[in-house]
Amino acid sequence: MRIAISALSLSLLLASTACAQKDDGQPETGPEPILSATNTIETCFMDHRGAAERREMCPGQYIENCIRQRAGGDTTVGMITCAREEYEAWEIQLERNLVTLSETGRTALMQTSFEAAQSSWVAHRDAQCRYEASAYEGGTMAGVVSTACLSAMTAQRALRVAALVAEMDVH
After folding, report:
1. pTM
2. For the CA atoms of the chain, what is the radius of gyration?
3. How far apart are CA 161 and CA 50, in angstroms?
4. Cα–Cα distance between 152 and 150 in angstroms, integer?
5. How far apart are CA 48 and CA 40, in angstroms?
6. Which tens digits make up the pLDDT trace of 115-166?
7. Domain range summary for the chain, segments of one domain joined by +
8. How far apart are CA 70 and CA 83, in angstroms?
9. 83, 54, 46: which is closest to 66 by C-alpha?
């Protein structure tokens, strides 16, 4: 559901970006430089330090800023590039969280169970994103939807694994 909302949000953002003009009818000029996807995520985390539930607001921030501010960001290639950059940043975050989780004092059964769950999650994510993109099969939006889906689902998983790490730290 959240991914469908993300695709809708992406469409609305594109419409508002295309229509952004000053009152004098001239296009707005000079957008501020955007942070990298990794820096956007880290800045969001810093802004919500100590409030894990508020970190749920971090996924999608880079994509939205990138599409709005990058030259060509509102093109199909631009949207895919922006989504791919955020996806890769969340992959790095997820990998860091997985390494941290593996270094906690978990039992062998916990480790094996988690590895199986993680493998199943990757298969689920990939199948879900293929499914969502299939609605646009043959069209240019398929790549946008697929990449945005990968980014959103990977972000959600990274946040979930971070929560597991926090739970392990408490025990």
Report:
1. 0.77
2. 18
3. 16
4. 6
5. 12
6. 999 999 999 999 999 999 999 999 999 999 999 999 999 999 999 999 888 8
7. 36-170
8. 12
9. 83
